[in-house]
Design brief:
The protein is mainly alpha-helical and about 240 residues long. Helices cover about 80% and strands about 0% of the residues. Helix 4 packs across helix 7, helix 5 runs antiparallel to helix 6 (about 95-100) and helix 5 (about 75-90) packs across helix 12 (about 220-235). It is globular and about 50 Å long. It starts with a helix and ends with a helix. The mean pLDDT is about 95.
Length: about 240
Amino acid sequence: MRAFWLAWQFLTRFPVPAVGFDGPTAGRSLLCYPLVGLLLGGLLSGLAAWLTGTPTYLLAGILLTAWVLATGALHLDGLADCADAWVGGHGDRERSLRIMKDPAAGPVAVCLLVLILLLKWAALTALLERHDPSPLWTAPLLGRTAILLLMLTADYVSPAGLAATWLAHADFRAMRWTVGAALLLALGLSGWLPLLAAGLVLWWLRRAALARLGGVTGDVYGAAVELVETTVLLAVAL
């Protein structure tokens, strides 16, 4: 349970029991990431059911707001940093990494965040009109599973980064089984189309990160969550 609470504490802003941090617990907490995503999906689905009867566009806005608040905009921050780095880095690895560490957000990052949130809101509106809650579960599940897939398939290029401790104690064999179980569950919830679309987007992001940075960073993990979540919602809504 300590590993789960650590994952829940890191990926959400909900209060949790006090958990002492240590390397082995941090490594085990990675296996709980898809579960945290699934629970977030359950909370969103429950909120949607509780607010049944609310105008669709308003309910979509409430759900999106709750989604962002529940995660503290953690992954949106990573997406914004990546956007600034890709544009401002001018193809240079070291310059891109320096920009990622800058807490300020440029106009490119702001525009991308607005577009991502707009797409999520529009997709949620369409899904609510169809009374299809399954993507509310699948999107957060696959978003956090994407982090594990990147950890399994790409080098982490920030030795002093936050994820370094997690990865140093990770059980990669168990992570593969966890990813497999999460993908099967997502397939059962929403079918193959959002799974395929999310896989293509994640492949593109991994390829771009390898070409620009030689690997991935925590910001790339965050960008993966947001892009995969948005892709899942759009794939089901279209």
